[in-house]
Amino acid sequence: PFDTSTLPWTAIPDNEKTLFLNLFSSVLSGGVAASYGGEKNDTIYFINNENTTSPSVLTFNTSDNSWLKYSSISVERPIGRNQMRPITDYNGKIYLLAGFPFTTIQDVTRNQGGMFIFDTIELSCVLKDAIDGMLRVEYSATLLPNGIIVYMGGKDPKGPDGKPVADGFRIVYLYNTIDNTWKPQPTFGDSIPNGDN
């Protein structure tokens, strides 16, 4: 069992010299999204937002305490913001639901958002369409053992500050990582919350 009675704190050697703080997107511009991955699942990936002056991905390897920056990712540049909940699957792919309008590095505007799938082993990224109704930020996301990601709740990125999305928890959205399909799933019960996550 995992022992929580004595949790060690380990300082990262030379962190002040090697941490690329100036290369992380600021919180005011949307910040970054972070998740783990790599061949041994021992690397933390920090994915910057649309700011093209910053590297698209920064990594910290927990095995050797090294930082790397990647300005070029093959196929598509991923977008990460602090309002996104990245999910890493069992194959080292990070799923980033961009539930807001954005413009790709190729200058294509995506008014309905999209799903970035960043392969942490191949260092490549693809952009897939999201299902209608998925414009949201600050949502909850969970990966199930069968490879399905459940998305629920969140806030409307176009509405007034802090307004929950209309469907709240009455509809959850299922994304199948194996065949790239979406399915809205109505929920039922007497006490379904109306608020956000």
Automatic annotation (TrEMBL):
Positions of transmembrane segments: none
Entries under InterPro entries matching the protein: Gal_Oxase/kelch_b-propeller (IPR011043), Kelch-typ_b-propeller (IPR015915)
Domain of life the protein comes from: Eukaryota
This protein's name: Galactose oxidase
Originating organism: Rhizophagus irregularis
Lineage: Eukaryota, Fungi, Fungi incertae sedis, Mucoromycota, Glomeromycotina
